[in-house]
Amino acid sequence: MMQIPLELSLEQEFSLKTYEQQVKGLNQDQAQGLLLEVLRQLMIKENVIKHLIAQIE
What we know:
With 57 residues, the chain is mostly helical. The chain has helices at 10-23, 28-56. The model has no long low-confidence stretch (mean pLDDT 93).
């Protein structure tokens, strides 16, 4: 069975801290807009992964 890494790499941890600092300066409307954009991008990423898996099968 393949092990799926559930931890962030050091680069990802650093990137997350950078985003955390940027987000602290947002107002509520900006934060909500950013959240929706991040969710949209995650959905697109999910679609791409599903498409790639379907190409393999």
